Amino acid sequence: MDFKREIADCLQKLTNSECDFYSDIEIPREKSFGDFSFPCFKLAKTMRQNPAKIAAELASAEFPPVIKKAEATGAFLNFFLDGAFYSKQTISQILKEGADYGKSDEGNGKTVLIDYSSPNIAKRFHVGHLYSTIIGASLRNIYGFLGYKTVGANFLGDWGTQFGKLIVAYKKWGSLEEINKNGVLEMERLYVKFHEEAKSDPTLEEEARSWQMSVQAGDSEAEKLWSLFKETTLKEYEKQYVRLGTSFDTFRGEKYYNDLSEEVVRILDEHHLLKESDGAQIVDLSDFNNMQPCIIIRKDGGSVYATRDIAAAFDRYRTYNFDLALYVTDVRQSLHFAQWFKIIELLGYDWSKKLQHIPYGLLSLENGALSSREGNVVLLEDILDEAVSIVRDVIEQKNPALENKESVAEQVGVGAIVFSSLYSSRIKDSVYSLDKVLSFEGETGPYAQYTHARTASVLEKGAFNGICEDFSPLDEQAAYSVVKLLSEFGEKVKLAAERCEPFIISRYVISLAQAFNKFYHDNTILASDETVKTARLALAAATKTVLKSALALIGVQAPDKM
Known about the structure:
The chain is an alpha/beta fold. Among the domains are: 3-81, Arginyl tRNA synthetase N-terminal domain (Gyrase A, domain 2), CATH 3.30.1360.70; 161-244, no CATH class; 380-553, Isoleucyl-tRNA Synthetase, Domain 1 (Orthogonal Bundle), CATH 1.10.730.
């Protein structure tokens, strides 16, 4: 039941006003001001009365049964809900709808394309790719939950002179057998080998450029080797994507869109946007907040990132006709996106307004927190493995008889890394401390997962059958606090989508877990009185359902036992 909607509809009938009551209804910070509050300032304009007087008059009106009372505090009209009725409506709906609770159809018929992860081919997946991957995956889950059709796009870094170098190194010192055996690790070895040998043999650089031109020209041997490197890398990346619980609809990379760059140049030229500057072709953007010029074609005739991004945008809009396109990259690329978004706008395409950059801050690790197999580059696989290993040791100490220990350790270890990464606003820089991230106490993923497992344990012991008729035992503060949070789930998901901020869900999860644990501490759920026991089990079941759904939105699994 949408209690805000109930109050908004009632206010609309009482005032016969076109005011947007729903958007203006707030949740007061102070409990003494009720469960919901409506500021009457906007009504003062249409009703031509003092807002405090309007609030006082409305407080004496008749409201639906769910509202126990309404009080005026200055210009604010505060609503206090009937706890038992509120609990019955909320928990009954959750028990009925299950995993569908909180979902919306607001996105029906609309498409959101999300460009995220975008690692470079022939290199192992390092921790720097983590933010883009999990922020993008979470946004995809959130928009999907609201009924949108989502498209996950992985814009692979599969273009550049490094592939010419890799081909040279492979033909001189590599073999298919070693590539098949060691994958990306072998490609990295060959790339390092090339640079070592090039120090004493400058002709290697020219040979590499020649092979890169062959790739660009579509030479069959060059294409075959390029495809080998790409497919081998994707096999390794897929292992990490499976661990993180994400997938993609398209893996078109820079090479694909480089082939479409001629269209971009032609259209820009037709619109008289191209200018020559020191031999390069640019778009002058100085009239727009003194923005730096955007290079389209380099002096040597090659395309650049902006050219390929514009080409990708053309292709994607034609293919998916998206209503929104989100680009999840770190904040250092903000200028790049501002430049080519502006170019799309200057070309006269209305869908330029549908393009949105989703920047995030930088990630660093505490010194000594994690060993790496590769100098100062921390591999994602390493950080996930170490987290899982630590959790496995904890399980061995505290619950050695647990079934599926490996599976639970994986879910908790990986979940801890993901949850911590999504617990603050994405624009903030973060410093990882594995000790804090993996703690089962505090505002962490393991704490939230343990709360979910606690609800599962209580439900199993109480043999709850999913039916509750009398919710009156929940008309007390600890239970009511949980119910209020449960009722807010759908609104939190909408807010997270509106702001493109997964941390709104993560913070909600912790608030719900803390509220339930307080309720659990203050009350004996498996009470001797059957009515009390059933009502409290119903609350535990509803909490379990919403915790699992909310964790899933941010890509964290919810084990039933830990």
